[in-house]
């Protein structure tokens, strides 16, 4: 719960997004500070992925304002988001199986020395980056195909850091991982926070959210349904917000019975 | 890429589970650059052997099947006809492999994308005809005609690439259309005459059978061999020095020496054999120079990296900001360009443009060469050296069968069998790569 900056590095104010007849997002608010892990939770179809894609520039927003370090900006293309310093790690990772770890980390932004790829410096930097993140992979020179799912996930996250971003978006980083690999990825998320990055973490797993997130933002049917500090909030409260269980027959009866008791 | 991965599974025992963030061991792990669990390569020669054995087991066969194949071919044909391993015959093989080899270089690019270009044979035939029309019918300067021919080849390839990348027609179909269409255009250009004889001068002379590096001087072949060996030695040592300075794993000196010695033996023996016949043909020199340049482009430049990336995962490449359509179009353009160059080589061999230039099994041989040499049909894996290695196999078989006066029917069946065998090896090694976690 370290709010280092007063101004959020990234803020969404009243963002709406429509796809034809579907109102995917309505007046959504979101704030991410540097050195803060914001979990974005919600049921299937709640609009998490759409929200992330508006930030990443895949879907431009229809209404509302995106603020970057306090200034309104327009993000219309993935390139705009990358230019600002938003790095997105999608669920399918998108790594090239045939290239080695170094090749993947630097894919599309190879370091050059007199016009040719500078493998030595790239390898040196990759090793340094991976070791500062305590990422353990057998070698930076083996093809991605020979890494485990968890190792690929951490390589994908490390790759997002090569461009020196300020905000990292992780889309379901632990969804397909085992217990041990999940632990590794969560460690890595904490290390991102230590590096003073803003992290937006999409997850279905409440245990993961409770473990690493500072703030939980709940989306329900494309709207904000509460923002909670993780430390002071019970899991039940969050799940109730996700499912909309705060307003149902049981709660209404409970309210009536307390009134009747008076 | 760099095979300095140089890593041997020395210790498969995992000591500890990865430490949580607050564990003090995490800090020490961060300090050590080398992962403690595995992949420490033995120093020296022993490491090289274990590494090699591990790779073969893991399905990374590299050029092993080719070398075994060449030895088998050599033994079989030599037993049938003692002229097979004579210097003259080997010199013949080295001359005739370069034309189809040029087509193979272009195909390696296309195969790296996991696509196929069926038009290279027809384009090469069209190129030789175009050149003949320019030079003979229009009296154009030979070198200008060569330039225009290659530009046409590049343009044809780019057109295929455009239909594939931008319109979305499968490459197989686009290039099949090209296979028929460009062959038709060639027949139309040749028209009633059927054959155009090209005077033996300019580029056609250079690519002809009587044109040798440094005019058959004995020194010529040895200079080439020394140049190749010295550049490998110099390149490896420079790389080793830079890697040492940067503190990343480097190739041990013993391994560098082993590789240099192996290359030196191969290069100087070849030079001696060719010298005892008539020398190194200029076609072969141009072919080898093209291989060196293209290999450099593929492995060391951002463009080459992008080609591999698109072959390995289109979505990943796109997300990394690579213009996938552009890569596809340029790769097909390169394929078309090399097809045109190959056509010039054919023209040099026959000093003419004929109706059946680039026809027959030219296309199949070019594809077979790339695949036999070790470039995967599934994309993302391969080197341009497979064009040389594969052509050595193919041309040896062709020449051997010719020596035995074997019927064309038998030649086709044997070549077909070799192609099938190569693809089977590719598929099987891919499976074992998957099983070994390296696919």
Radius of gyration of chain A: 20 Å
- What pair of chains forms the biggest interface? A-B, 47 and 55 residues
**CATH architectural type of the domain at 68-211 and 281-425 in chain B:** Orthogonal Bundle
Q: What is the 3D form of chain B?
A: globular
* Total of helices of chain A: 9
**How many separate domains of chain A?**
2
The geometry of chain A reads as: globular
What order do the strands of the largest sheet of chain B run in, or round the barrel if closed? 1-2
Count of β-strands of chain A = 12
**Count of extended strands of chain B:** 2
* CATH fold-level name of the largest domain in chain A: Rossmann fold
Multimeric status of the protein: heterodimer
Relevant terms:
heterodimer, A: 262 residues, alpha/beta, Rossmann fold, 2 domains, four-stranded antiparallel beta sheet, 9 helices, 26% strand, B: 439 residues, mainly alpha, ABC transporter involved in vitamin B12 uptake, BtuC, two-stranded antiparallel sheet, 17 helices, 70% helix, globular, disordered N terminus
